[in-house]
Amino acid sequence: MAEEGQVISCHTVESWNEQLQKGIAAKKLIVVDFTASWCPPCKLMSPILSELAKKLPAVIFLKVDVDELQSVAEEWAVEAMPTFVLTKDGKVLERIVGAKKDELQLAVEKHATTVENATTANA
Fold it and tell me: Is the pLDDT score of 93 beyond 50?
């Protein structure tokens, strides 16, 4: 099990479901990186995702290889790599398709702030 501040790679459907359920139960923002080992733009985005994970430990970052977990990629309607899906409470908040570093950072920071503010307001 990875610690906060890291990107968690899901290699089985079971680990995917477990991580997703943990995020939903904890009411945390989950950022899913649907990637492929043969995809150059995916490799370009990997260190950016790692940096975001370090910067935002309250957010859960998951990585799914679409070739390894085809059923998960199909279930989430992933058609191009990389695809980033931001979700909370089982609902998709935003989808970013392509190696769009700035768009991804802005979306993650926007939704992470919204999540933190909601958590603080409920405390």
Answer: yes
